[in-house]
Amino acid sequence: MTEPRDVAALQERLAAFADARGWGPYHTPKNLVAALSVEASELQEIFQWLTPEESAGVMEDPEKAHRVADEVADVLAYLLQFCEVLGIDVLEALSAKIDRNEHRFPVPDHQDRHSSK
Predict the structure, then answer these.
(1) Burial annotation 63-101 (CB, 10 A radius, 16+ → b, else e)
(2) Is pLDDT at 44 greater than 70 in this prediction?
(3) CA dihedral for 40, 25, 87, 12, sign (positive or negative)
(4) Distance between CA 24 and CA 14 in Å, rounded?
(5) What is the pLDDT of residue 117?
(6) pTM metric for this prediction
(7) Please, are residues 36 and 82 in contact by the beta-carbon 8 Å criterion?
């Protein structure tokens, strides 16, 4: 079954999944951010002892690629649930953060980037 891929639809699907299993009361901000941290650590564990070259090619190994994709999905699921519970528009938050970073870290002048000083 193909589901819509927009953020709101995914958040609704995640909420329905949790509610159908009676997990809603456990999906507090504290619990969700803890679960997010655990899943991010599980993603990191895949790369822990890889060389930079091995890490760049991780998706070429079907078993590792599957593990990476699963952990990315877990991280995103908990992040979306966390944002839903707190009323954070994740795309708006990201856009605002990019705007702030563009001001904090302006693009260097062309001349400075390629200077041979």
Answers:
(1) ebeebbeebeebbbbbbbbbbbbeeeebeeeeeeeeeee
(2) yes
(3) positive
(4) 10
(5) 47
(6) 0.85
(7) yes
At position 55, the amino acid (one-letter code) is S
Q: Which residue has the tokens 């709101």?
A: 8
Here the tokens at position 30 are: 């504290």
Structure confidence by residue, pLDDT tens digits, 88-108: 999 999 999 999 999 999 999
Q: What residue ranges define each of the domains in the chain, with the CATH number in brackets?
A: 28-105 (1.10.287.1080)
φ, ψ of residue 3 to 5 degrees: the values are -105, 155
Contacts with 39 (C-beta within 8 Å, 6 or more apart), sequence order: 71, 74, 75, 78
Asked if the model's pLDDT at residue 47 lies above 60, the reply is: yes
